[in-house]
Amino acid sequence: xxxxxQYKGTTLVLFxxxxxxxxxxxxxxxxxxSPEENxxxxxxxxxxxxxxxxxxxKVSSCLPNIxxxxxxxxxxxxxxxxxxxEVSEDIGDYNDLIEAEVEGTIQAKSLPYVECTSDLExxxxxxxxxxxxxxxxxxxVCTSTCALPAVESVDVQDQPWILDQALQYLLNFxxxxxxxxxxxxxxxCEAGGAQARxxxxxxxxxxxAARGENVMCTQAFEYDCxxxxxxxxxxxxxxxx
Length: 241
Hints:
By secondary structure, the protein is mainly alpha-helical. The chain has helices at about 5-30, 50-60, 70-75, 80-85, 95-105, 110-120, 125-140, 160-170, 185-190, 205-210, and strands spanning about 195-200, 220-225, 230-235, 240.
């Protein structure tokens, strides 16, 4: 049979272990998800090609006369889709957007990308049919006495502009229009000679961290300015380390 003193001793040990655990978690900043575990923050996100692939998969699943390959070909050649996504940089066609993202001159924003893919997933075949009908009405010359062809009869290889316009309508989500749009952070970094990107530390490319000053960096992903090798960000512009 345990005595009262033994119970008190056990309680004190458990309390000490609990406090030790809390303190150790607090000083380390806790456990953070890796980019692979947290889809909202991805340091190496490639968004342009997967977005078009997802959209074309939806279109081809609803319209038997449009193959996914034809849709991808028309989408990549489109100079209107980057405009529909409100890409701020000077981009020619969607294929240029894909290449610019791979090269790192354009970077997608993770949270809007996740929201955009979720919104595209909600598109129904009715939505896709309506977008095609609206595209035909806006691109085909037809008087009040003529009837528009059925969506299923459209040959997008002969009339690619119809599908091009329909894809623009289908991307008309605010989330999708935020994936590649510029932010104040982008503008500030560019003005100071840097490029904004995601860092896996709250210190980013700051000069005090780059110079080894005694500072504690948070274990949090940070969208901040990157000055490149040999330089650091002082809060307003790049300077040599």
